[in-house]
Amino acid sequence: MNLLHIDSSVLGHHSVSRQVSAAVAERLTKAQPGLAVTYRDLTADPLSHLSGSHLAAAQGGAADTALQADLAAGQAALDEFLAADIVVIGAPMYNFTIPTQLKAWIDRILVAGKTFKYGTNGPEGLAGDKRVIVAVSRGGFYGADTPAAAGEHLETYLRWVFGFIGVTNVEFIAADGIAVGPEMREKAVNGALQAATDLRAA
Asked: For FMN, which residues are the binding ones (predicted)?
């Protein structure tokens, strides 16, 4: 069994999503001692955003030396994802959606013929055998029953992305309201860490 642990926060040790994603990974590795873990920090080692040159190369066009290295990095990210049985993602909300670093990673794993394909009935996901757990941190409150619900484009986006490639049961652990004040931050973090501890092992 392989676990891929992804972090995308730019805040380093001050990050709530990193703290919670680490707790999730720790819970799963303790429950399954033989679990092999691959860690990717998308801030410390970012992937480039897609460009016209990337898309041209994907269609068989020539790639210069610099682009070839970048394409190899993207292939490595895809290979890590394909090899993973469990994927744990630390995903803070920045300006109502995911960090740009996480979007760059998603662009490398949504690949036709690898994680999805188009058929006569439309798109079909090819990665449905994975378990995906997302540790979310949000400064405010964006639940379905809140005034800001329409501005929530992190969880809804990730549900769609992973559903598109066949992962329909994405698990979310959220720390909400961390920018409201110190007491709310502590309560949110403690609640998320408890949820990580209570996470089912398999």
From this structure: 9, 15-17, 93-96, 137-140
